[in-house]
Amino acid sequence: MLEIATAHGPADVTLDGPDDPAFLLVLTHGSNGGVDAPDLLAVREVALGLGGAVARVLQPFRRAGRRAPGPAARQDEAWLEIIGVLRERFGDVPLVQGGRSNGARVACRTARAAGAAGVVALAFPLHPPGKPDRSRAGELRGAGVEVLVVNGDRDPFGVPDPADAAHVAVLPGERHELARDPAAVGAAVGPWLRRWTAARDGAAAGRP
Fold first, then answer.
1. Which among 140, 3, 29, 26 has a CA at the least distance from the CA of 80?
2. CA distances (Å), 53 to each of 2, 39, 91, 137, 150, in order?
C-alpha cells in the first residue's frame, strides 16, 4: 500500500505486479465504491497475467469517507498528481489508465494530460438514469487516446455508441455493477491489454 499526498487530500494506492512491468495499469473506483469491485479485480488479474503492474487508487474523496467526488476539476487535479508519482516509480513504461463508472470518466478526461497510451472504461455512465439527453459521450470522444468500453446491456446509465470509442464490448445480462460474470469483463479487456505486452516482446526481439 502506498499513500500519495495530493492538493485535495491523501490517496491510497494498492500496487501489484513486477518492478519492471510491460505496462502500468492504473485503475480506480466509482463514486460510492472501492478498489475491490469485482470488475476491477478481474481486470487486475488479467493485467498481472500479461506482465503488467497494476495500481488500484482509492481517491482522496473516498479515503475521506465521502460518497460524492465533488467538482470534476478537483478530482482530475488529484488524479494527475497521483499519476505523476506512479510515473516516477515505474519509469517510461506504457501507461494505461481506467476505472469503473465515475472512475472511467476521470480516466477519459485526464488521459491526454497524463500521457496515457489508452483507457479502459468499465461501466461508463453515458447519462444519468432516465436522462438520455444528458449524454457524456463527449468525454469518451475527447480522451485523445484509444478507449475500450465494457458495459452491460442492462445498464440503466446507458451504453455508449460504438462510434464513441475504439471498441465497445457489451456484456449480456450485466447491469452497472458488472458483477454477474467478472471473468467476462476480464476476457473483454485481455486482448486489448495484450498489445503492450506484445510491443515490449517485439522490442526485445529487435522487431520494430
1. 26
2. 14, 17, 12, 29, 21
Single pTM value for the model: 0.94
Which residues are CB-neighbours of 58 under 8 A, at least 6 positions away? 11, 12, 13, 14, 28, 29, 34, 35
Give tens-digit pLDDT for 140-197.
Answer: 999 999 999 999 999 999 999 999 999 999 999 999 999 999 999 999 999 999 998 8
Residues 6+ positions from 71 with CB-CB distance below 8 Å: none
How far, in Å, CA of 99 to CA of 143, rounded? 14
Degrees to nearest 5, angle at CA 45 with 44 and 51: 90
SS (HEC) of 30-72: CCCCCCCCHHHHHHHHHHHHCCCEEEEEECHHHHCCCCCCCCH
Who's near 153: CB < 8 A, 6+ residues apart? 159, 170, 171, 172, 173, 174
3 state SS of 150: strand
What would the grid cell of residue 170 be?
457489451
